[in-house]
Design a protein that fits this description.
Blueprint: H1 15-24, H2 30-42, E1 46-49, E2 56-59, H3 68-74
Antiparallel strand pairs: 1-2
Length: about 80
């Protein structure tokens, strides 16, 4: 079996990243959560969190909306 590991680091000194880290702890299977987000992104869909933690549904949109605060973090 061939597995590749990609780690995600969070800077807990940065309020935005700390918030993401705290949110990520709600998911018992973080790897599956990230893979589902990648899959949604690959298909050009916007992820929408349901009321229950860990569930993600897909919302089909013509143009995905980008959160300006998230975009700021990428620059």
């Amino acid at each position: 079996m061939s597995r590749k590991v990609k780690s995600v680091s969070f800077n807990t000194e940065d309020p935005f990243e700390k918030e993401m880290y705290e949110y990520s702890k709600k998911f018992s299977n973080f790897s599956s959560f990230v893979k589902r987000l990648i899959h949604i992104s690959m298909n050009g869909k916007q992820p929408v969190a349901n009321i229950e933690v860990g569930e993600i549904s897909e919302l089909s949109t013509d143009k995905p909306k980008i959160n300006k605060d998230f975009l700021r973090q990428l620059i």
